[in-house]
Structure prediction request, 189 residues.
Amino acid sequence: MKRVAILISGGGSNMVRLLESMTGDHPARPVLVLSNDPEAGGLKKAGDMGVPVAAVDHKPFGKDRATFEAKLLEHLDAAKPDILCLAGFMRILTPDFIRHFEGRMLNIHPSLLPKYKGLHTHARALEAGDSEAGCTVHEVTAELDSGRILGQARVPVVAGDTPGTLAARVLHEEHRLYPEVLRSFAEAL
Ligand code: GRF
Prediction:
């Protein structure tokens, strides 16, 4: 049985779908939900679902990413995950941290990579007049939003779309795509 840890920063809607998917004959089970924000709404959701949770507030560490990440690693080393999923995790991780999990660290990004790496993806797609948008699950490497693409889902851009309406349409697909990709990834690991 593969052990999965999930990093979140907020509500954790993707995290919830991942937790819900890891049952029955699924080859993985969640061992930890970890956040950089002790107030993240997803921590309560995970706790209510019986999954161990932890938080390391990144704010006291200021620019000292290395010490913040060392604290994250204390929790992760204790949980011994085989796979690390970033799900709405909004902190940039250093290459040193990523090296710990290279080849077994996934992220979901709300664009059709390689288009629109980074933030404000929906506004940028609308600005560009794209006729479609979507989301990508990819392996995390030191270069932001640039690892091997493991799965994508496409949605149409609709006349009158705002970043909010497009985000909602894409998020719905994220909730289907991420569990699908995690299962395949865990089966192949
Ligand atoms: C989603 O748009 C996801 O693509 C991005 O973070 C946003 C919020 O995700 N990574 P969640 O609801 O916290 O899972």
Observations:
- Strands lie at 2-8, 28-35, 53-55, 83-86, 105-109, 132-139, 149-156.
- The first strand starts at residue 2 and ends at 8.
